Amino acid sequence: MTHSLSDHLLKDNIVTKADIEQARRLQIETGGLFSHALLRLGSISEDDLLSAEARLYGLARLSPADLPQDENLYLVAREKLGIPIDWLAARQVVIWIDPDDDRQIGLISPNPLDSDMNETLDIQAHDAGCTVNIYIAPRQVIDTALERQSSGALKQDSGEDFDNNNAQRLREMAEEAPVIDFVNQIFSEALKDKASDIHIEPFEDRFDVRFRVDGVLHLKQTRPKGQFDAVASRVKLLSGMDIAERRLPQDGRQTIRFAGQDIDLRVSSLPGSWGESLVLRLLTKDSELPDLEALGLEGRSGQVFQTLLSQPNGVILVTGPTGSGKSTTLYRGLQGLNDGIKKIITIEDPVEYDMDGIIQIQTNANIGYSFAKGLRAILRQDPDIIMVGEIRDGETATIAAQAALTGHLVLSTLHTNSALAAIARLIDIGLEPFMIASAVRGLAAQRLVRKLCAHCAQPAADPQAYETKLWALIKDGHDLSQSLSGPAQWRSAQGCEHCGQTGYTGRLAIFEVARMTDDLADGVQRGDNLQTLISIARKDGFLTLLEDGLLKARRGDTSLEEIMRVCGVKV
């Protein structure tokens, strides 16, 4: 049977021979099923494994919606077959009676082909005049079914008290098969949903698992509090953190392999009233970068940004909050500049994308290897183009500006709310206005907005009302008429199975890009305030984030409500 499954997976190019051999070694060392060994090694996703098993063994897949909610159906099945709950729980088997036919028994289990289990149930079912129907199901569905079958027995375990200082006990808990399977299932679901972050949050009698998808958090699971310590220990163990330390915040980082992908796992723990809140950021290293236009950098902003990238020297800054896609924009810009005749070096924290032909360096705070120290070393490597992951202090800003003035093109990011607000931020961290005016070539800001679902988005009921709102949102009366193209196609979010009833799938960026023109440089050196700098940039065709977003909403890419949410604007 094991060989049949491995041959099937190899034939369909789902796993490699090396994956098979490694899984067999793990199975010999730890016992259990071959398929579970593949999952624990991250060689295959749960969804791919279940699909392969369903085809190979001829078993139907059970979806969460197919799982009976009535606890009496589980009770009736146990009584009808005369099977003790302890026997089922020990084997993690769930059985239930078909509500429409009491002669049909449903069954799910982590090992649905267990011969001893099936023989026992077949004998009992035959004596009761019933038929047992075995299904393939995801681990999450099995766990939910086990809870319903036991009628809350798992919740009674939530009061178990663990010794905070017993690191060995925590480590043993983290290595238990159900815990490994649960954490793997979380990763599998997160990758399937294209989540950027996983939040594991403990409360008094439970812990929640939430995914950030397209910038918005969604509750995925709620589990009994008694299982939290084991799950938290497993996550901390994976990310190289101290599993015994639960009083202080920690940060961990590790590259793990899951479902055939290399994932950069960044974990942050924060002690709270009911335990440690864990946030896991997932960065898939082998994902492809979209081009600048696909990111949303188009029209006038796209043209200006491409012009800035073509400059032989100077500083180009992309600003925005954490998670707004700044690094992705810079990476895509670097790919366009990587023509084989330029020396390109990056210094990052961490290296998020592996780029061929580019020297990439990662900072290391533990040994004092900061952005500033790394940047000084890079300048001795005769680079043409430098990317600095983030300008965090005056020393790094000064070195970057000096590098730009000595003939290097420097790309970096900064945390500010708008493009032109970066000028005040640079002055605040110690850069002189004349240095900013001389070294900086351009400033950009961006935010990520959710795209409307292509399957369910509907035309706006009152397009004229949306047109009226568009002009009402332009507070300084700027004329957008030259930027408008084609008829208005305002659309609104609805929700369907393709988008998880949210109305949105995927994201694109809204941008504002300003060139350091002579007039703007003069304004910087005069110390003009932000509004005055914006007025100067307007003469060069500058559009704000809100205006770029409104144009994209008018074109039907996203909704007006989404633009207002991201830009923090109310009508």
Q: What is the CA-CA span between the terminal residues?
A: 64 Å
Output mean pLDDT: 87
Rounded radius of gyration (Å): 28 Å
The residue fraction in helices comes out at 40-55%
Q: If helices are DSSP runs of H or I spanning 4 or more residues, what is the number of helices?
A: 23
Strand content: 15-25%
- Compute the number of strand runs: 19
Largest sheet: 7 strands, mixed
Morphology call: elongated
Q: Structural class, from helix and strand content?
A: alpha/beta
Write out the strand line-up for the largest beta sheet, numbering strands in chain order: 13-12-14-15-11-16-19
List unreliable stretches of 5+ residues: 152-165
Could you describe the 3D structure shown?
- The protein contains 23 helices and 19 strands.
- α10 (177-192) crosses α11 (228-238) and α20 (518-526) runs antiparallel to α21.
- The model is unreliable at 152-165 (pLDDT under 50).
- The protein is 41% helix and 23% strand.
- The longest helix is centred in the first third of the chain and has 16 residues, at 177-192.
- With 571 residues, it is of the alpha/beta class.
- The protein has a seven-stranded mixed beta sheet, sandwiched between helices. Strands 7-6-5-10-9-8 form a six-stranded antiparallel beta sheet. The protein has a four-stranded mixed beta sheet with strand order 1-4-3-2.
